[in-house]
Amino acid sequence: MQPIPLISTNLSMKLIEIIDYYLDRITMYRLVLYELIFFVGISVIFSLLGYLPFSFTSVIFSTVFLVIISLITNRIFATVFEAPTNTESVYITALILALIISPARSLNEVIFLAWAGFLAMA
Questions:
Q1: Three-state DSSP string of 79-117
Q2: Which of 6, 54, 81, 110 yields a CA-CA distance of 20 to 30 A from 46?
Q3: What gap in Å lies between CA 46 and CA 40, rounded to an integer?
Q4: Cα separation values, 82 from 25, 89, 92, Å
Q5: How many alpha carbons fall within 13 Å on the CB side of residue 32?
C-alpha cells in the first residue's frame, strides 16, 4: 500500500510553477538587496526596543553614511576607469558594512566608516 500524498501532484506542480514565476522575475542581486534591507530594518527596530546597545539614530546614520560614501567612491572609480557600474552591488556592499561594523558614535568611528566604505568600493 502506497502512502497517501498530502498534496496532490497537480496542486504541488502548480505551487512550484507559482514559486518559479516569482523567482524568475527577480535577480539574485535584487534578492540579496531586499534581504539586507530587511536585516537593517530589524536592527533599527531592535535598537528602538533596546535589544541592541546602539541608538536607532546611530544605526540609521551609519547606514546612510556608508551608502553615500560607497556611491561616491563607486562613481569616482567608474569615471576614472571608464567602467560600467552596478548600483545594486554598491548598496549591497554598503549594507553589509553597516551590518558588520558597529554604528558610529564618535568622529573617529565616522572616519573609520568612511575609510571602510571607500576601501570596500576600491
A1: HHHCCCCCHHHHHHHHHHHHHHCCCCCCHHHHHHHHHHH
A2: 110
A3: 10
A4: 30, 17, 21
A5: 12
Single-letter residue type at 28 = M
Residues counted in the chain? 122
With beta carbons less than 8 A apart as the criterion, state whether 121 and 85 touch. no
Q: Where are the domains of the chain?
A: 28-121
Grid look-up 497537480 returns 10
Radius of gyration of the chain (CA): 20
Q: Give the Cα separation of 41 and 39 in Å (integer).
A: 5
pLDDT per residue as tens digits for the range 76-100 = 999 999 999 989 999 999 999 999 9
Residue 69: per-residue pLDDT: 98
